[in-house]
Amino acid sequence: MVGIRRLAQYLDISIGTVSRALNGRPDVNEETRKRVLAAAAELGYAPNQAGRSLRRGATSAVGFMIESNDENETNSDNFFLGVIGGLTGALAQHNLDLVVLPCSVNEDPHDYLQRIVVRRLVDAVIISATQRNDRRIALLKAANIPFIALGRTGGADEHAWIDLDFEGVAHQAVARLAARGHKQIAVAVPDTDINLGHVFRDAFVDAMERHGLSVDPSYIIRARSSEHGGYAVGDALLAMNNRPTAVVLVYEMMAIGLYRRLNEAGLMPGRDLAVIGFREGPLARFLSPALTCFRMSLRDLGIGLAEGLLATMPAFADTDRPGPVHKLWPMDLVEGESDAMRR
Fold first, then answer.
1. Rounded to whole angstroms, how far apart are CA atoms 272 and 233?
2. Which CATH architecture has domain 1-45?
3. CATH homologous superfamily of domain 166-295?
4. pTM of whole model > 0.85?
5. Each residue's pLDDT tens digit, 220-272
6. Dihedrals phi, psi of 264, to nearest 5 degrees
């Protein structure tokens, strides 16, 4: 481990510049900040305030990195709140604290996590919103920090991960709609590079092909994962000359915005458009007609993540475990009336 003085000497810049770069101050240019963070990770820089933890060999804290933006900060149906409940309880049994690490949507997740790694703030990490090519994986492996991912990437994913069974949801949704005679089915996926969007889209296309149905590229709609995104999906559907008869949503809050847009156009889910949502959230339960969607226990998912992470931490790992956890989390169909129409 090296201190800030040694780090400044190595980079041949002032201690003040190094300090400001490590603390994310805006008065340091981007190139210098990246040089400092890279060198800190390479040399094993340890801040003075972490000395006590380093002498003890642990912080007794686990970091849960989540994406932070205006929508999920004000979202009363926040997915992560339920997961955190399960995580906190499971980790507390091992005298570990959970620290939420909110990464702004305006910042590169890799750069944000690099600062956390350099400062030695936590003993282990849970990452979420995994991207198709997620550079955080290599960073955590190089730093030898135990971690688990909530979500898969587009790579081999030999590390520990738990992901929702998006393939199962897509296949069940398409099978249900096809059995009702629907042939023109749309799907709404996130407009970011988050991997779940790729997984869900690919599974949707595969499910359609298995039922002998063609996929119109214009029916794959990219939108924000929010109520506003659902409203935009409604706009896109209503603007189509050859409008689909059904739509599958990949995010629970999209249904609220879509219902609103259909209502404004004098249309009703389940009568004029078959709608299948993703997760049964608290607000979605009050939609009328009742939303056909999928149910899962967020608390149990949090417990599963905690157990999978503990298995990667030497102090808690079970030596008889064959390898890191790789698990698709099941979701159960909840029948509603939003997809009642038949073709």
1. 15
2. Orthogonal Bundle (1.10)
3. Response regulator (3.40.50.2300)
4. no
5. 999 998 899 999 999 999 999 999 999 999 988 899 999 999 999 999 999 99
6. -65, -30
